[in-house]
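Exercise 7.
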Amino acid sequence: MIPITTFAGKKVAVFGLGSSGLASASALLAGGADVIASDDDSQSVAKVNAAGIPTADLREIDWSKIAALVLAPGVPLTHPVPHWTVALARKAAVEVIGDVELFCRERRLISPDAPFVAITGTNGKSTTTALIAHLAASAGMDVQVGGNIGTAILSLQPPQAGRVHVIECSSYQIDLAPSLDASIGILINLSEDHLDRHGTMANYAAVKEGLVGGVQQHGTAIVGVDDEWCRTIADRIEGSGKRVVRISVRQRLAAGIYVEQQRIMRVVPAANPPVLAGEEMIAALGGIGSLRGQHNAQNAACAAAAALSLGLEPAAIQAGLRSFPGLAHRMEEIGRRGAVLFVNDSKATNADSAAQALACFNDIFWIAGGKPKTGGIEALRRFFPRISKAYLIGEAAEEFAVTLSADVPHQITGTLDKALAAAASDAEASSAPEPVVLLSPACASFDQYRNFEVRGDAFRALVRGLPGVAAK
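Solution. The predicted structure, written as C-alpha cells, is:
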C-alpha cells in the first residue's frame, strides 16, 4: 500500500468502492486523512464498513468541511451527466480527483525522481504496460505494475529511488488526474471509443493528451503517430519544449522509432537535420508468437522506446521481448484440437481492437457480439474475406447479422457456450489447413458478463472442457 500523507488531517470523501476506491480509502486512512466513504451499492458500503472504513451518505454531509472528493474511475465525471456526488462537490468548490492523482501528489512529496511510466491509448494499453514491466523486470529492475491493468495503483509499493512504477491509465483515470506528471508518458494510438463518457472525439483526445502533455519537463513523451489525432498531439507537445519520441509501424521516420520487416529501428537525427546521425536496429520481432500482428509491433515499439528511456540496452530489450509470455485475453492462444487453434481475444471490446486480431489469421470462425459500441462492426468489412463463419452473441447479435448480411455466413447463437460448440464443430469439419476459433467480440461484455476478463475466463474454461483439446 502507498499511504497518502498529502491529505493528512483533512476530511476526504471517497465515492465508488470497487478495488480502486477501496484502495484509495485505505491509503488515505493510512496517511492520516479523515475518510468518509460511500457507494450507490449498499453491499459495497457494508463491505468497507466491515473493513473498518467510515461510511456515510454523501448527500447528508457538510461539504464545506471536505478537502477533496476521490472518485472511482467508473463513476461519470462529465458525460452523459456528472454523477450526483460530482454535482455536490462542484457546488461546494471541492476538487474532484482519482487514485492516480493521489499517487502523483504522493510521489512528488516523497520521491519525485522515482521512475514513473504511464501508458494510455485506445488499444494496446494493457499489452504495452505488461511488456514494459516485463522488459524492466527481466533487466533486473525493481518494478511495480498496476493501474487499469489490474492492481489498483495505491495497492502497490510506494515510490522510491530505483523503483519503477509502470501504470496503465484509462481515459477515466486521466480525467481525474489533473497534475499527472509521469517521467515517461506513452500514447499508443487514438480512435473513437468511450464517447458515452467524453461526449466527442475531441474531448476524448484532449483527455488522452493530458498524460503525454503532462510529462515532467525533462521526461519523455512517447507517441504513436500512425493516426492524425496523435500526430497533432506529438507536434503540440514538441512545440512546448518537451522531448517527444515518435513511433510508427507504417512508415520510416526521420527521427524516432519505426518498425519495418519485423525489425524495431531507431533513428537519431544529427544536429542539423535532415542529415541522419544514425540508424540502428533495437530488436527483431520475427518468431515471437506473443507479439504477432501489426498492433503488437506498435506495442513492442512503444515498449522498446520506454525501455531505452529507462536505460536498457538493445540486447536486454531483445531478450525481454523473446521471453514475453503475452497477456491473458489478448490474442491468448488457449489450445489446439487437431489443426484447430482456439484464441481468446476477449479484451477486444471495440471494432478497432478486433481488427487487430482479424488481421493476424485466415480461415477464422469468429465469435463476436456483446454490448455494442458506436459504429458496430462496419469498419471490419475489409476483413470479411478472412472469416469462414461468424457466431453472434449478446445484445449486438441482430445488428451484427445485418452488417454481415450476405457477405459472411453467420448464425445467431446468443450465448458463448453455444457459439463455441458451433464454431469448434464447423472449424473441425472445414478443409482449412489451420482454422482458428477466435473470440474477438468487438463489444463490451456488460450485457452478459461483469467484465471482459470474466468473459475470457469463461471462454478459456469452455475450450479446455472440449474433448481432445491440448492446452497451450
